[in-house]
User: Fold this.
Amino acid sequence: MKPSLVETLEPRLAPLDLDHRLLLVREFIPGRIVFTTSFGIEDQLIAHSIFTQGLDIDVATIDTGRLFPETYELWERTEARYARRIRAAYPQAAPLEALIEEQGINGFYKSIEARKACCHVRKVEPLSRLLAGVSAWVTGLRADQSDARGDVALIAFDAAHKLLKLNPLADYSRDAVVAAVEEFSVPINDLHAKGFLSIGCAPCTRAVLPGESERAGRWWWEEDNKKECGLHVGEDGVLRRGPPPHEARQ
Ligand code: SF4
Assistant:
């Protein structure tokens, strides 16, 4: 997929709402498009838009094996609500067994390297299989989720995966997402009501206090600037930057 499409599509996407952004991308970009969900509130809104519009966009998730029971329950509830199966990718058995042999079942707490090794086996490698041969990748990233995501763009070329990456909620505020979810009665994770804003693997996620950033509950024992899991970084391990996001929607 050509990086030049970013310049073509970005100004056309910017004035649109979520539904029309996804429609435009589906009409404009040939080949397979995959949306990866971790069942967070943004992901649920995007899934709602894809399913209710009947868009030819694959909806897929990575089951790390360490998710919250509430997340599995939401997964099932979402499939029932929209009558669509959500495809799952799993860690490969041999590397996972080797990882546990080496670092133990909760070895990711021991160091950043150990945590990244776990994220690589449980998330990054399965993601690479989900994205193989794909033209465009849709995610639920928002720019105001954390400082590290401050420059997330609506659309960018992902050099690591060699595809277009669309973040159709990049310029939405959390309040705007919550309002849309309530308006359309989109199913969301019960953990949000208990102070969990960003929800990932159970042992690596905690609730946050009022005023803390949304990502503060992820890998809370690490420094802020080292907290991305490896799914949204380039080949050099650095979070990919794009053009400044548009003003946050209220
Ligand atoms: S978030 Fe935690 S449990 Fe999940 S893959 Fe990363 S280190 Fe492993």
